[in-house]
């Protein structure tokens, strides 16, 4: 069996997630990586964007869901996973990493965030 995927690496966004009031007012910069398992063999034969998961549409889904303020990045990640499955019913898996670049902690880091890795066997419903 061949497994194929479409991905976006290091998508940079500004959003307003967090439990602290300041995070909801000032916001923070985020980096999102997403890989979606998708059967693109038909697209490989047809050379038609309609036969694959369009990564421009995938980017719009990420942007849309990141623009909705949430307390927790886990909540944002699940919304993205559900929206991807709704838009692309043939997708079989998702790997998603959302990193807050300047988290409100006292330590010097390259960011903090969440990672979601799941198969779409009814896990997102």
Rg calc: 16 Å
How many DSSP H or I helices?
A: 4
Q: How confident is the prediction overall: mean pLDDT?
A: 93
Structural class: alpha+beta
Number of strands: 4
Gap between N and C termini: 26 Å
Query: How would the global form be characterised?
Result: elongated
Question: Which spans of ≥5 residues are poorly predicted at pLDDT below 50?
Answer: none
| Percent in strands | 25-35%
Q: What is the N-to-C order of secondary-structure elements (H for helix, E for strand)?
A: EHEHHHEE
| Biggest sheet character | 4 strands, antiparallel
Strand order of the largest sheet: 1-2-3-4
Level of helix content? 25-40%
In short:
The protein has about 120 residues and is of the alpha+beta class. The protein has helices at about 20-25, 40-45, 55-65, 75-85; strands at about 5-15, 30-35, 95-100, 110-120.
Please, could you describe this protein's structure?
There is one protein chain. This protein has 125 residues and is α+β, with helices and mostly antiparallel strands. Helices cover 30% and strands 30% of the residues. The chain has helices at 21-25, 41-46, 55-66, 73-87; strands at residues 5-15, 28-37, 93-100, 112-119. Helix 3 packs antiparallel against helix 4 (73-87). The model has no long low-confidence stretch (mean pLDDT 93).
């Amino acid at each position: 069996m061949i497994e194929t995927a479409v991905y976006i690496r290091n998508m940079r966004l500004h959003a307003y997630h967090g439990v602290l009031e300041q995070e909801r007012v000032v916001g923070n910069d985020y980096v999102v990586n997403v890989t979606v398992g998708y059967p693109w063999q038909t697209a490989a034969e047809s050379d038609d964007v309609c036969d694959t998961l369009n990564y421009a549409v995938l980017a719009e889904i990420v942007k849309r869901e990141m623009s909705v303020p949430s307390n927790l990045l886990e909540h944002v990640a699940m919304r993205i996973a559900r929206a991807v499955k709704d838009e692309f019913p043939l997708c079989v898996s998702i790997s998603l990493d959302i990193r807050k670049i300047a988290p409100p902690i006292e330590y010097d880091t390259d960011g903090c965030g969440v990672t979601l890795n799941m198969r779409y066997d009814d896990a997102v419903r």
